[in-house]
Specification:
By secondary structure, the chain is an all-beta fold. The chain has one domain: Immunoglobulin-like (Sandwich), CATH 2.60.40. It is built from no helices and ten strands. A five-stranded mixed β-sheet has the order 2-10-9-4-5, with no helix packed on it.
Length: 107
């Protein structure tokens, strides 16, 4: 993977987080890759899981092929269980795909 970019570093509750990743098969045979988007809440009022899988996609690439894939998930997927029910708190979130990282804010 060579690149990771967010459509926007700031999203509002009710919107969708969109992340693009560019993947290249540098091998000599066709191959598959599972792109996994892991998200962590940087400053939650309770301790949610350290990192949560929010989106994934399996892709197949021919030798030498490069492709940019868009993965997306709604901000409601960032909510966590807390006393009183599920809650989405505004703040900063970390995002990781195959070792590449970015941050975004939910307002």
């Amino acid at each position: 993977m060579t690149g990771l970019s967010l459509e926007s570093a700031r999203v509002r509750a009710g919107e969708t987080v969109r992340v693009s990743v560019t993947v290249t098969n540098r091998g000599t045979r066709p191959g598959s890759e599972v792109l996994r988007v892991h998200v962590s809440d940087r400053f939650a009022s309770v301790s949610p899981p350290v990192e949560r899988l929010r989106a994934f996609r399996k892709i197949r690439l021919d030798p030498g092929e490069t492709r940019t894939e868009l993965l997306a998930f709604p901000t409601r997927d960032l909510a966590f269980h807390a006393p009183g029910g599920r809650r989405l708190e505004p703040g900063w979130f970390g995002l990781r795909v195959a070792g590449h990282e970015a941050e975004f804010e939910v307002a």
